[in-house]
């Protein structure tokens, strides 16, 4: 990277060259050359005065002066022009804004390849002109809220008075949402297959569960078929419905909703087979009998092959929830296998007890998806027969209504904004936003930060909780030492448990980086490489939390999860596809509630993503706002009442340097940061082909990006050998983490393996260049985990 040192401070020794030696500037545009020339002149003057102050023993000499005495000098003294990027700041500002960019830790490191980059200089500028109209857009009515037309009730949709009363009184659901109004009557009355398409947070789960419960509860399996003689369905009456979802988390969530509904029809029994427990227990559950089964495709296939007790001859509903994700995770083969087996078994077994009451005469397949992409259509082809397409009709005055068929939008009430943040400022801009969001209790209760890969999630978790983690680790270490001392005196007990409970290994810790004394925020981390038990408990803790909480996670939490009271979604790393974006931001603004989302983009090509963001609006993007980076930093780091002062720049710089020192002081921290950086770059290469012109790894400024990982290494020297241990180091293992144990067969169908730079691109020349770039900068980690 020839241009990786632009605007950097190096801990080189002072050159013998007189400070006022004129420098020749070549290359770049005339404006750049002029800026660089002025900048160099100004810096020379500044350094000369600092040196004077340092050598004259001026009592006001600050840290910079002492750093200079020790031989640190601003690398901009030997200016190099940015190769491709335009310079944002005028040179005077560049130097005056960063008087504190020298670091004590740099003195200690003795690493000649270490670079202390100045935060605020030589950052590329944004090309996007903000349309003031956008910021003045009027608020929009919620699009996924329960209907308030006064005539739509659950009873009017065909649900029994018992079920409707349960929804109203026990679950406090007063009226159906638009998609529930469209789906429930259809599935209650008709036996056709159905494709349900609706935006995030619109209540699709209840839309398919309620008709199933309604019909099973009203269904009779033949008068003699149960011990109670009332003809009602009992657990032994047979398995009537199978619901497939792509992840364990989603299965658990569906199961929880199901259980809450079944409280009013307690004779219907539901259960799950999703792995994470002994297969023996799952088999025992199946043997006892279930009427509704929630499962992941891999595990269900396994039981269909190996569990005699699983009788699917009575199955009347097969629901495929989150269809697009099922296909993305490569479950096509497993689903095809399940569909075929269901067909075969129902033909092989003797005719089931004649359906009576309201059970369907045939197997009804319901496919749910927020999108209607090609792969969802393919899933429809293999599973649906003459299906009805159930969706919320766009209103007549909907300008982009025609798009609804093959596309989907974000909830109308969601307030989306973007910030164009130069790579070097990313980390401080993230912490600034979080500081501001949690400045006082109540403004934001829960936020989710989406990050591209598991290593980077771990790094950011540690950065934001480092004070708490370090304090805890120190306490554990001293307790260990005390115990070791005691053990010398006491006879050693073999039974004594070893205390490995370092908070650093934990998934929940106080977010000291953006908590205040009045507003303590707990940070949670979630990704596919964590053990299942940790994933489950972390998610449950985040969902349950009544206190301010932040979840930093990969896309493992982007689909279908219904986490209460999330008011802010931050896409710190842009999503891998537009659909991912809509699913991520859909974790907020659910069921008519308000919510806001912010995405970080780099100046340059990534600004092209703004057009894609606009597409997720019904009004063409008039409500999309731009957040100014300086404003974000000022609000996060600035002292109240200083007005136009620049104290926030110094504070942001101090914060950044403190994190850099923390990273450097412990080899484990350094390795974690390097690993996160590497994984981030590898993940960057896996954006969908259609968006790779926007997220082009060839345009990533790796030197500047390293700063966002608190690294002072030159990009080419960042090498981490050895991959994460465990099964996430394989593609199949990565899928297992997200889904269920036996999904290897499914993985074969996976077209886009995120995080795997070996994925062929549509452009072979581009792919070769991309790989070369990755090879140049990446170490020998064969895989990394997106989770
Ligand atoms: N009729 C209703 N009234 C009020 N809240 C509702 C209603 N129906 C569903 N909800 C609530 O809306 C939230 C979102 O529901 P659900 O998870 O089913 O949405 P979804 O459409 O499946 O979203 P996603 O596409 O993100 O999975 C849940 O908290 C649910 O309890």
Task: Describe the structure in your own words.
This is ATP-dependent RNA helicase. GO terms for molecular function: ATP binding; hydrolase activity; RNA binding; RNA helicase activity. Among the domains are: 30-116, no CATH class; 183-390, Rossmann fold (3-Layer(aba) Sandwich), CATH 3.40.50; 414-477 and 504-654, Rossmann fold. Helix 1 packs across helix 2, helix 8 packs across helix 9 (248-262) and helix 20 (629-637) packs across helix 21. Strand 6 (270-273), helix 10 (279-288) and strand 7 form a beta-alpha-beta unit. The strands form three sheets. It has an eight-stranded mixed sheet with strand order 13-14-15-12-16-17-11-18, with helices on both faces. A seven-stranded parallel sheet has the order 6-7-5-8-9-4-10, with helices on both faces. Helices cover 39% and strands 10% of the residues. It is α/β, with parallel strands linked by helices and 787 residues long. It starts with 7 loop residues before the first strand and ends in a 10-residue tail after the last helix. 48% of the residues are buried. Residues 1-23, 53-110, 222-227, 395-405, 490-504, 723-764 and 772-787 have low confidence and may be disordered. The protein has 26 helices and 18 strands. Bound molecules: adenosine-5'-triphosphate (ATP). Adenosine-5'-triphosphate (ATP) binds at residues 146, 173, 176-177, 180, 198, 200-206, 370, 560, 562, 586, 590-591.
